[in-house]
Specification:
By secondary structure, the protein is α+β, with helices and mostly antiparallel strands. Helices cover 20% and strands 33% of the residues. The protein is globular. This is Beta-galactosidase.
Length: 976
């Protein structure tokens, strides 16, 4: 753990939690041990288990409140009856008494002393019931709560709610009373709601209060408001006599704060407001909350905090924990994850599709991290479409906003995510209007990703939207030149693209309007956490029945098995070495994506997916589920997050020595202009400096070009690294960076002398061979088996190609050798698939092919491994493909194909085959293996099958030529 995080932990563990309720004498916690009966057959209502005398006949078990009942009953979903006894102080008689639930998932029914109280629907928001007429004061009382959890894994239908029909977070079932419960007592005229609006222009806190008079006659009360600073000094106060009529009485007071401190990430200054309702100097009700004076909005297409520009750097966050699942395992764990996010350079956390619990939001307020107000309205086609969908969505919008609108850290409400259904697209405007009515102070994003109709944001106090580009894009592991350029071109107009030399470049996002303010709200790659260390933690501190324990263990076992199946265990005899190399790849990919994003002036921020990874996005985290930083993933992402960075580009990444390369060094700064000293060096593989340049220049706010020159690479050969260091005028290092590239001389690309036969129905392979003066003959069935066959572009729909491919197979069966530079086969479906080993007899036309999403990753590690073999002579081997392989890196792979793996992939199924249970808490699917370069015995001969993008990059990338020549030479040696 870093020194920064250790200091923060020490400080915050000494801090009291935020007081947000009544004083102790007027509250009574019901947290602790309850009894529960799991009603798997849903017979409890019919048999009246809600009555104490009936419940006592049952065999109950103890359960802690709060907790997810998955911690007690493995993977249970359905109905549970909770009960406990409690004493009520005699002094509470004559007061209004309420029972307050922080959150119960999903549907709740409550009885007190065998008398019905009420029901609540919604699993992530608080609710209260008045119960004073049902209580026995000064005596023992009983409470019964019937809970129906979300139905996710089974076909149960309970109380009109079926499988995946209610809003649910994908991290866990989280059934039961998973947050706290308490009783509170107050006067007959009491506070029903307080909403604080900070106005920094006037340094005023506006309190919107609702005073509820439960009697049938009006009453006169004294209302007192005090605002206290961090030292306990009252800095604003007001007291008035109020005539409260029966029902709700609305009041608005503005209190000016002298010598105000504005809340920010660097100065998370919090005030405390205390509101008291008094009758003849006796406090009948009180409410307190901490708040900060801050405003967050957009001006001139830039995010601003308290009137100052802010480049938004967010971390995506699912809020899944190793033991308690939906709630932090401990306050220390919550502090650690928030502090590590802030230390890594993030100024915002985006909780995803689950409202964060109060304790976690308290910490974000205190630590100074912006957060997104998350709603569990929908999660990637869940809840499924039923006639109840509109109702449950509106319910979640209303309750979540009302519950959290006094949170300083929450600066924006995010209503929907990646909409796919017309009914939700139809609700975009109405739910945005509702959100604005409930909270005029915050920005509202109607849909992250803009899949429905393109995103809109509503600025504070605005009722009409501002069009806004909100984009989700995952590059996978290879941020090659084409991919990097896509970030630079995103949201640019045709004229801007042309000026940048990016005309015709494909950009990213759906429903994107060129030239408009843009936010990249999902970006990042993935890697496997250190499952060895994780599983030791689960053995020592975990719960053996919860899903994270199970799928972490199974994932590690799956990787070990897959490595053996593909033969890659010879490279990684210790599976932990693979995990560490994956994390290096993850960090490099994240860093390049963020550098590219920050070089686009139209993009005003990004959100990295993800801070912590679990369930089916286990690979995405910068931290593992136990909140340990994932080595270079964390470090390199942190480096790209810094206020000042120096991105480097070598174009092309793999250089023909005789052609040279373009060297570009940029500066990106969020700080004020300053003079700086720039030093650029190129080091060879032995770390000898072969080129250098240094100069003084202005490190300006925004995006600068420090170097853009043609690099003469004649005489270069091998691997090189560009090093950049930028210091201030006093010699203090501001930032540094490095970027590798490789140079190939003509001698290294020596053309093969051996004759080959060619099948090329498309023509591009022959055109290259002709241009290079390489001898070949057309393949025929009468070809001698001592001449190898090279097969070009694959096209399964082309009957000529398929006939030729079958002819080549017949040739191989007779003892020939053939190289298929591209492989075609049956596209593996995205969902509901069963992955089975595929016989070599399927080749060359019927392999099971995984396409781009499965082979390049996205947010999941898809690791392509290169073995030491003549096919890769002169290229790096026994490693994960990256660097020199970024262009020819496969976008397809032969899944579980029998044969000898020369290069291939290890990955897990992130859309596991669980019917419509996919995308949920029970973790990723099986670990599988796939081939990128495979040698297979067919009859008396052999085939070499490839999915590398060799043909596409001939004469563009020397690595493609190197591989082609190696394959031709290897094929010749095998054919003799």
């Amino acid at each position: 753990m870093t020194k920064f995080v250790t200091n923060i932990l020490t400080l915050l563990l000494l801090m009291p939690t935020v007081a947000c309720a009544q004083s102790d004498k007027n509250t009574l916690s019901l947290n602790g041990t309850w009894n529960i009966v799991f009603d798997d057959l849903n017979e409890g209502i019919e048999k009246k288990w809600y009555l104490d005398k009936e419940f006592t006949k049952l065999q109950s078990k103890e359960i802690e409140v709060p907790s997810c009942w998955e911690e007690t009953e493995e993977n249970y979903e359905g109905v549970g009856f909770y009960t406990r006894k409690f004493d009520i102080p005699a002094s509470w008689e004559g007061k209004i008494v309420e029972i307050d639930f922080d959150a119960v998932n999903y549907y709740s029914e409550v009885w007190v002393n065998d008398q019905v109280v009420g029901f609540h629907e919604g699993g992530y928001t608080p609710f209260s019931f008045r119960i004073d007429k049902l209580l026995k004061f000064g005596e023992e009382n009983s409470i019964m709560v019937r809970v129906v959890s979300p139905i996710i894994l089974t076909d149960k239908r309970i109380d009109g709610m079926g499988r995946q029909e209610v809003p649910m977070w994908r991290g866990a079932i989280t059934g039961g009373i998973w947050q706290g419960v308490q009783l509170s007592a107050k006067g007959h005229t009491h506070l029903a709601d307080v909403f604080i609006e900070p106005h920094i222009a006037s340094d005023e806190a506006v309190l919107n209060m609702i005073l509820n008079n439960t009697d049938a006659t009006k009453s006169t009360k004294e209302l007192l408001v005090n605002i206290v600073d961090a030292k306990g000094k009252v800095v604003a106060s007001n007291q008035e006599s109020i005539e409260a009529y029966p029902g709700k009485n609305e009041l608005t007071w503005s209190l000016k704060i002298e010598d105000v401190n504005h809340w920010s990430m660097d100065n998370p200054y919090l005030y405390k407001v205390l509101v008291e309702v008094m009758d003849k100097q006796v406090v009948e009700d009180q409410w307190s909350h901490q708040f900060g004076m801050r405003e967050f909005s957009v001006e001139n297409d830039v995010f601003i905090l308290n009137g100052k520009p802010l480049y938004l750097k967010a971390a995506f966050f699912e809020g899944l924990y190793p033991v308690k699942l939906a709630y932090p395992d401990s306050r220390e764990m919550a502090i650690k994850e928030i502090s590590l996010a802030k230390e890594a350079g993030f100024n915002m956390i985006r909780p995803w599709r689950k409202p964060a619990p109060p304790m976690w939001l308290d910490l974000c307020d205190s630590l100074g991290v912006l957060t997104v107000g998350s709603l569990v309205t929908e999660c990637m086609l869940r809840p499924i479409s039923t006639p109840r969908l509109s109702h449950v969505v509106e319910n979640e919008v209303r309750e979540t906003i009302l519950n959290n609108r006094n949170r300083t850290c929450i600066v924006q409400w995010e209503l929907f995510n990646e909409i796919n259904r017309p009914i939700l697209a139809q609700m975009l405007n109405s739910m945005s209007v509702l959100a604005r009515e409930l909270d005029p102070t915050r920005m509202i994003l109607d849909e992250s990703g803009g899949w429905g109709e393109g995103a809109n944001i509503y600025l504070p106090y605005e009722r009409t939207p501002k069009k806004f580009n909100d984009i989700h894009h995952y590059s996978g592991s290879q941020v090659c030149e084409e991919e990097f350029d896509g970030y630079l071109a995103t949201a640019k107009t045709k004229e801007e693209k042309k000026a940048l030399g990016l005309a015709g470049t494909k950009s990213y996002g759906k429903h994107v309007v060129p030239g408009m303010m843009t936010y990249l709200s999902e970006v990042g790659y993935g890697s496997t956490p250190d499952l060895i260390a994780n599983n030791k933690a689960f053995e020592k501190e975990g719960n053996p029945i919860v899903a994270p324990t199970v799928y972490h263990r199974e994932l590690n076992e799956g990787y070990i098995n897959a490595l053996k199946k593909a033969g890659f265990d010879k490279i990684y005899p210790n599976v932990r070495d693979l995990y560490m190399e994956e994390q290096k790849m993850h960090g490099m990919a994240n860093k390049r994506m963020l550098e590219a994003t920050r070089l686009n002036s139209t993009v005003k921020g990004y959100c990295v997916h993800a801070l912590v990874g679990g369930d089916w996005v286990i690979g995405a985290g910068l931290l593992d589920l136990w909140r340990n930083p994932k080595t270079l993933v964390y470090d390199l992402t942190k480096a790209a997050n810094q206020p000042q960075i120096a991105p480097i580009r070598i174009l092309p990444r793999n250089v023909y020595a005789e052609k040279g390369a373009q060297l570009q060094v940029f500066g990106v700064s969020e700080l004020s202009d300053e003079m700086a000293s720039v030093e650029v060096q190129i080091l060879d593989a032995s770390k000898k400096v072969v080129w250098t340049e240094s100069f003084n220049t202005k490190f300006a706010t925004g995006i600068s070009s420090f170097i853009d020159l043609k690099l003469d690479t004649k005489g270069f050969s091998g691997s090189y690294t560009v090093h950049v260091s930028i210091s201030d005028i006093n010699g203090k290092l501001i930032t540094s960076n490095k970027q590798p590239f490789d140079v190939f001389s003509a001698e290294e690309l020596k053309k093969p002398e051996y004759k080959v036969a060619v099948v090329d129905t498309e023509g591009s392979l022959k055109a290259f061979l002709d241009a290079m003066g390489i001898r070949y003959v057309d393949f025929s069935q009468s070809l001698s088996v001592d001449i190898p066959v090279i097969v070009g572009k694959a096209n399964k729909k082309n009957k000529i190609y398929t006939k030729k491919a079958e002819d080549v197979k017949a040739f191989v069966k007779k003892g020939g050798y053939a190289v298929f530079l591209e492989t075609t086969g049956n596209r593996v479906p995205g969902f509901n698939r069963v992955l089975e080993e595929v016989s070599v007899e399927s080749l060359p036309l019927k392999a099971e092919m995984f396409a781009k999403w499965a082979t390049r990753g996205g947010w999941a590690a898809k690791t392509h491994i290169v073995t030491e073999h003549p096919v890769f002579e002169g290229l790096p081997t026994n490693m994960i493909m990256h660097g020199v392989y970024e262009n020819i890196h496969p976008v397809e792979a032969m899944c579980k194909q029998e044969g000898t793996y020369i290069a291939g992939m290890i990955g897990y199924d992130h859309f596991p085959n669980h019917d419509d249970m996919r995308r949920h808490y029970n973790g990723p699917g099986e670990v599988w293996w796939a081939a990128d370069v495979l040698e297979a015995n067919i009859g008396e001969g052999q085939m070499l099958m490839s999915t590398l993008r060799i043909i596409d990059f001939l004469d563009k990338d020397p690595v493609a030529e190197k591989l082609l020549y190696n394959m031709m030479n290897y094929a010749h040696s095998k054919a003799q």
